[in-house]
Structure formats: C-alpha cells, structure tokens
Specification:
Length: about 475
C-alpha cells in the first residue's frame, strides 16, 4: 500500500519533485490494470446513461489475487462536495446489483414478462445517488462479478471481508484522489450489520496508525441489520404483536421455552412442541415482508431435461423457474437474465473467463462466520463519536425491529430526541429516536427486510435528511 507523508514540509519544490512521480506511476498502473472504465450505454436502457457510471476491479489481499468488482455512480447533485458511500449488500454473498437495481441505485428493471431478449431498464426517481456518490462493491470474493485468481484466495469469511473491504476503499481512493476530502460513510443491510461496524472500526484504526490515504470516514448506516445470532428469538414476539400467532401459543412458548427459541434443549419436549406449532403457523408467510405474497416455492422446479429444452428462456437453472409477474421476486430473475447476457458483460467491462454463471446470491459457497455479535463494534464507534443511522422496515420478520431496538437500548445511551413520528409528503413515514452517541434509529412504516425496496421515496427522504445532519 502506498503511504504518503502527512505533510510536504516547507518546500513546495521538494513535495512536487517526490510526490508527482508517485501519482504519475499510480495513474499509469491504474490504466494498465483496468482499474475503472466509464460505462455510457447499457443493454436494456434506451439512450446514454444520464449519470456517471464507472465499473472496474480493485485487487485486494496480500498478492491481489482477489479481484473485487465495483460499480461507482457519481452523485447527480454536487459530487465535489457530496458524501461518498461504500455500499455492501448482505447475504452474505449477495451481489450489489441487488442494492443497485432493487434498493438505492438509479436503475431498475421494467416489470414486464420476459420474452428471451435482454430485460429492459428504467430510471428510478428515488435513487440515493441524488444526494451522494456510491461505490457498490461485490464482496466477499466469488460474489457477483468478483473473482479469485487462485484457489487459496477463494476463501470467504467475515474477517477476510472486513480486511478486504478496508483495503479496497483505500486503494480505490488512491485512484480517485478527487474524493479524498469528501465525507465517507459505509452502508449496507441485512447480514452486513455484522461486518460494517467492524469495517468502520478498522478504517478508523488505520487512520490512527497513519495509513494513507487518510479516509474522511464520518459514520455508517445499516438497514434491518443482523447484529447477533440471537435475533430469531424476537421473531416470536414480533409474530404475536402482528397477530400471526394466538395469545395461547405465545404464552405457552414463553412459559415452556423461557425466551430461548434457538438453542432448544432437546429434552424440553414442551418447548419443541410449541416451536413446531409456531413453524406450522408461519408456513406461507413471507418473513421478509409479512404482507407480501410468499413466492419462494417458485425457486424449485422439476429437473426434467425436456422442460429445459422446450422453454429455455423460462429456466434459470435446475433449481429456478419464473414466478408469476405479480411476485416481487420476478425482477430477481430478470436480473439473472440481464447479468448473464454477453452484451451486458461487455458493456460492464467484465473480464472474459473470470466467472461462469452470475448468481444474485452465492449461498452455495461456504462462508466462515467468526463474529457472533457486532455489538462491541457499535460500542467502540460510539465512543469515538461516529454518526450512525439504523433503520428497520417494520414489517420484516427476518430481522424484526424489536431485536434492533433491544441492542440499541442495551447501549444505554441517553435519549436526546424521543420517540416520535417522521413524515414524508405530510404522511407518517415511520417513527424515530435519537441518542446521545449520535445514533439515530428509525422505523420505515410498511417497509420490509430491505426497506428501500418497498418504500423508496420515504427511504431517500430519510437518507437525505440524515446526511444533511437534519432531524428526520
């Protein structure tokens, strides 16, 4: 990693003499390594893109054998001064195209029946790039278009992800020096709630150690974040509060399981019976948004070869088939068709032969989880004064807002702006509370596990106000 001195000293000529050759060599090496390429047109989108999109790879790891692929979209407002955010999608192992196309980016798939051609793209009016520049990066390795050049570098774990994301950002900033003074935030959702606080802590420690370039990190934001392995415990009380299970079952669960619904004692027959009843009652409920239809059955189909041969455009793999158009997950399938199109890969400057079939989520690849809770990282970052926005779609049962409220409460910081409504267009968009450790918690009314996917206008308003240090 290149390290610049913190000061050029008194002599401008000496600074110019030694610093310019370093910057020139970095510029040349970036060109040779194809660090980034501007994308002006994308298959499925009519005309030139009305925003700046750059794609490329950054080598991370000791020998740079991990090639992390990114999409960089410059702020559509004032990129010179607007904040810069690094965004990681959860999973772990889900491509950032999910965040870009379904949640916070400026593009979306047109919802129309797939006919075998490249799916069409439309502009999203509530993109977070209206107020900030965003780097969407595929991490961990073997996620999306990121790849490994050796078998040994293909290992995946939360610790590796933390180190590689930190290294990625410093290297990216070296090749994009005009953003060195911009405020930086790290964001993500779902399982990224485990790793992002640790990434921010490592960046902060790197700054303190004098690593260059210095990163102007100001804080982080997390949506419906996993924080510990205990979160499923709160699904019971969430389901009861939402009227999904009876009072009698809820009281029996509390009595027989004593608040522990994960590591159940196999000798506790009564608790096991109640958990079975709970699971049966929850069958057919979409845990990511309890009001949405459950379309997950469409992920599994017959492996009959005749069906694949007769309807090749209807089949994504031996485990997938297209759901009805009214299912929200229909666009997930459109995304797979789009990302696996040769013309799309050429437009995105994907290196030929680097990956095979693109998958939205690589759940089938092992991922070692060593961190069981990110709570201590929140504590450390709070002590250092970093800002944070924690938001929850209030209809998510996968990571219920109750579990998020519980760990925030246990931080034991005093409240500076107590529980109240926040509004968008004169309507209640959710509820919020702010703490003395500069942490803001917000619910998004009607939101699911990835809140911006369900409530894009409200979430953009929330994000914009928070970035501007305004009350929600």
């Amino acid at each position: 990693m290149v390290r610049f001195s913190s000061s050029c000293g008194d002599s401008y000529s000496i600074c110019r003499r030694f610093l310019l050759p370093i910057l020139l060599s970095l510029h040349i090496s970036c060109q040779l390594a194809s660090c980034g390429s501007i994308v002006r047109f994308l298959p499925g989108f009519e005309g030139p893109l009305p925003f700046l999109l750059e794609t490329g790879y950054v080598g991370v790891g000791e020998t740079e054998d991990v090639q992390a692929f990114y999409y960089f979209i410059e702020s559509e407002s004032n990129p010179r001064v607007d904040p810069l955010m690094l965004w990681l999608t959860g999973g772990p192992g889900c491509s950032v195209l999910s965040g870009l196309m379904f949640e916070i980016g400026p593009l979306a798939f047109k919802i129309e029946e797939y006919n075998g051609s490249v799916p069409n793209l439309v502009l999203r009016s509530h993109s977070w790039t209206k107020v900030s520049s965003i780097i969407f990066v595929d991490m961990p390795v073997l996620t999306g278009f990121s790849y490994a050049r050796t078998n040994s570098s293909a290992q995946r774990s939360d610790l590796l992800l933390i180190h590689q994301a930190h290294q990625f950002l410093r290297k990216w900033l070296i090749h994009h020096p005009k953003f060195l003074s911009n405020e930086v935030y790290i964001g993500g959702d779902s399982s990224s709630g485990i790793t992002i606080p640790a990434i921010v802590q490592e960046i902060s420690q790197g700054n303190e150690k004098g690593l260059k370039p210095w990163i102007n990190v100001q804080g982080y934001l997390l949506g419906n974040p996993s924080t510990s392995i205990r979160e499923p415990n709160y699904q019971i009380s969430f389901a009861h509060g939402m009227g999904l299970i009876s009072d009698e079952l809820y009281e029996s669960l509390q009595r027989n399981c004593k608040g522990e619904y994960i590591d159940i004692d196999p000798t506790n027959i009564l608790c096991s019976r109640d958990i079975k009843s709970f699971n049966e009652t929850m069958s057919g409920i979409n845990s990511q948004h309890i009001l949405e239809p459950d379309c997950h059955e469409f992920y599994f189909i017959s492996k009959r070869r005749s069906l694949v041969q007769k309807y090749p455009w209807k089949i994504l793999s031996s485990y997938h088939k297209l759901p009805p158009l009214w299912c929200r997950i229909y666009v997930y399938f459109l995304c797979e068709f789009w990302a696996n199109d040769d013309n799309v890969r050429k437009a995105l400057h994907i290196r030929k032969g680097s990956i095979g079939k693109w998958q939205r989520c690589s759940y089938d690849i092992p991922f070692e989880a060593y961190i069981t809770s990110s709570f201590e990282f929140h504590v450390n970052l709070s002590r250092k004064g970093y800002r944070s926005l924690i938001y929850s779609g209030d209809h998510d049962m996968t990571v219920p807002f109750l579990s998020t409220q519980a760990w925030i409460r246990s931080l034991n910081y005093s409240i500076v702006d107590d529980w109240r409504q926040w509004y968008t267009n004169g309507q209640v968009a959710g509820y919020t509370r702010t703490y003395s450790n500069r942490m803001t918690f917000a619910t998004v009314k009607g939101g699911g596990h990835t809140a911006p996917e369900y409530k894009p206008e409200e979430c953009l308003e929330m994000y914009s106000r928070w970035l501007s240090n305004k009350a929600l």
